[in-house]
Amino acid sequence: MKKIIVAIDGYSACGKSTTAKILAARLAYVYIDTGAMYRAVALYFIQHYINSTNPKAVAEALNQIQISFVHNNKTDVCETYLNGLNVEAEIRKMYVSEKVSEVSAIPAVRKHLVDLQQKLARKRGVVMDGRDIGTHVFPDAELKIFMVADMNVRAFRRQQELFERKQIVDLEDIIANIQSRDLMDTTREESPLRKAADAYEIDTTYITVEEQVDCIMNLAIGKMIEKEYRLEDI
Ligand code: DC
Questions:
Q1: Labelling 118: which of 5, 9, 50, 133 has CA 20 to 30 A away?
Q2: Which domains does the chain have, with CATH numbers?
Q3: Among candidates 129, 145, 124, 150, which has minimal Cα distance to 217?
């Protein structure tokens, strides 16, 4: 069967990564968490006191950054590495969440990471989640999903996720962080978060992860069949 690209975009904490991960495993596709890439860059900027408003400092920093993903067989999680160090836990912490939207609004950072994302999915057969995948990184993705959910549900899910990582954070702090990221992600000049015209919108407020995955899986199968039997390819 011909391989497709599944682009999953949406607001923070709507369940994109959880859904994308399971979907990729079911399709035997590669999963690429583009948010983790922006988080890794934000972590580097924090650790090296990079001034986001200084283009020269930003360009030099980007040259020093190597991001990779390595599958951990024990946890069955694809973990993020920054310059050879496993930063999977660190990039999920609140201090990184508080910085990441600022860093991801820098045009040079976006260009650098979008180039990398396009290279990673050269051969298709990927599920990629983020904010601009269907609109900017892969406007030709065969399947585009846009995920939304109620704010309280999003915050509660993020709180549970942090708790599982042994971090206890107040719901109010999480809501404030999500609201400010929503605002920055949708209002930045460079490829802001938008629903692509040809994306399917899925509201995850009242559905389970299994239902989300099943729904996208059915759409993906439909798109794969469509691609397989396109008249011009026969
Ligand atoms: O998906 P996430 O919450 O881990 O993403 C972290 C931040 O990275 C998010 O606030 C916006 C930014 N981001 C982006 O600008 N473009 C992407 N494709 C993915 C994430």
A1: 50
A2: 5-223 (3.40.50.300)
A3: 145
